[in-house]
Amino acid sequence: MTTQPESALHSLDLSIIVPVFNEENSLKPLCGWIHEILAQLDLSAEIVFVDDGSTDGSFAVIEALHAEYPDVRAVRFQRNARKAAALAAGFRAARGRLILTMDADLQDDPGEIPRLLEALDQGYDLISGWKRTRHDPLTKRVPSRIWNLVTSAVAGIRLHDFNCGLKLYRREAAEDALPYLYGELYRYLPAIVHWGGYRVGELVVKHHPRRYGASKFGTRRLLNGFLDLLSVTFLVRFMATPMHVFGTLGLLSSMAGTGVCTYIAWLRLVHGNIQGRHPLLMLGALLIIVGIQFFSTGLVGDMLASMQHRRGRTPRIIRLLDQS
User: What is d(CA 302, CA 99) in angstroms, rounded to the nearest whole number?
Assistant: First the structure.
């Protein structure tokens, strides 16, 4: 994919990013549906399909849509790179000041676009959809509810549906989230944007039953989701100060080990032996060693964070007052 010239960026009001993986039957009706809604809005827009290595006729359909509609663009991957990579490619290709993401399976409703735009105008930087009435099997809804509750608690922001595909971003928020768009971390985009200092809101949106194909996600994603939550929490919230995390763990471990070893030393002085507390002695020594390891990890992490800071990973300046 070629890099866009600077003059092409921000040239449109809205970019609609649609990741695609084997959705050939739904693309044409989806594109027509989106255009029906866009015709009612007074804004310039584009639709960017990102073909994530589809093995069916999805890209042939996209090519036909590109020939039919001048505002349809496309990015195609040589192989399946998963949704995070598709979203990242879409964000980079987008030319709009606002970026909307939606799934290609016709379960997201393009008719919600005007409401999302109105909600964003209330001072938010990201509006995330909430599929309050979901047309998914129970085996998918229950794990999703548990995952959303845990994610809300960790992220410090109350959302009911972090993983809804229907989201509207201001371009700045999407660009700042780009470095974390890999693996399956796209599920945590609202949390990442929130931790970046942006305002995140939620809007109840319609959710339709799947018409074609099958879901690309299984129940295993629940375990993977919790592991990814740990990763993104550390990467976003504590990457700049890793010593605060590892140093605290090291201090607690070392203090516990020192306390245990002090007790063993007291037994030796008072009774002349350690009263058979050999496993406890080993535990104390192990806790001290683990504490030292945590401290060492924190120091190495701080060094890496310092190097990253010197390379320019500083917060975005949103306003500057200077002398004229």
Answer: 34
Please give the CATH topology (third level) of the domain spanning 6-237: Spore Coat Polysaccharide Biosynthesis Protein SpsA; Chain A (3.90.550)
Q: 3 falls in which pLDDT band (50, 70, 90)?
A: very low
Distance of CA 20 to the CA centre of its chain: 18
Report the predicted TM-score, pTM, of the whole model to 2 decimal places: 0.77
Domain borders along the chain are 6-237, 242-310
Exposed / middle / buried, residue 241 (Cβ in 10 Å: 0-12, 13-18, 19+) = middle
The residue among 1 and 266 whose pLDDT is bigger is 266
More confident residue, 284 or 324: 284
Q: Which residues contact 162 (CB under 8 A, 6 or more apart)?
A: 128, 147, 148, 151, 152, 155, 187, 188, 189, 190, 191
What are phi and psi for residue 175, nearest 5 degrees?
-65, -40
Q: How far apart are CA 14 and CA 6, in angstroms?
A: 17
